[in-house]
UniProtKB/TrEMBL annotation:
Keywords: Membrane, Transmembrane, Transmembrane helix. The keyword Nucleus does not apply. The chain crosses the membrane at residues 6-26, 33-51, 57-78, 99-118, 124-142, 151-170. It comes from Thiospirochaeta perfilievii. It comes from the Bacteria. This is PrsW family intramembrane metalloprotease.
Length: 171
């Protein structure tokens, strides 16, 4: 299991290190802000996960019919993008906010991939190469959404498309 976790997280960690190195060489960014962004991204997974578990239980208990699968995938996208948005909003006055938001998305991706790999090995290989780009792209859009709200909706649709595509591959 440890080897599976390492194999799953290593590509994302290496890409984040490479991105950080390129950003440092080209524009430079405060290392403390990068660490803070990574940590906030990682921490954003916990309330997102708790919220979805509680919401799932409430829906199962209170609604007698099965809701469409698409509805749950949409809720998942709204939930994850919402908590990433809250983390990114902490950096709204930072000049390099898009760069910093990239690391919020990276931290979120690492933690979510770790959790999902422990929960279900089937997704680990595909997630090791797809989750980081997804969360980086949506985090960049969320950063832009602080000034233009329509980018939040775009990040939701991208995340929803990813969720549905990944589900189709494995089921």
């Amino acid at each position: 299991m440890i080897l599976e976790i390492v194999k799953t997280l290593l590509p994302s960690i290496l890409v984040l290190i490479l991105l950080y190195s390129v950003i440092q060489i080209t524009i430079g960014v405060d290392r403390v802000l990068v660490y803070k962004a990574l940590i906030l991204g990682i921490l954003a997974v916990l309330p997102a996960l708790i919220f979805m578990k509680i919401l799932g239980l409430i829906i199962i208990i209170t609604i007698p019919i099965n809701l469409p699968f698409l509805f749950f995938k949409l809720l998942s996208a709204i939930n994850e993008e919402g908590f990433k948005y809250i983390a990114i909003k902490q950096f709204k006055d930072i000049p390099n906010r898009p760069v910093i938001s990239l690391f919020v998305g990276g931290g979120f991706s690492l933690c979510e991939t770790l959790y999902l790999t422990i929960e279900n090995y089937n997704y680990s290989l595909i997630r090791s190469f797809t989750a980081l780009p997804l969360h980086i792209i949506t985090a960049l859009l969320l950063s832009k959404s602080l000034s233009r709200k329509r980018y939040f909706v775009l990040s939701l649709f991208i995340h929803l498309f990813y969720n549905l595509t990944l589900f189709k591959i494995y089921n």
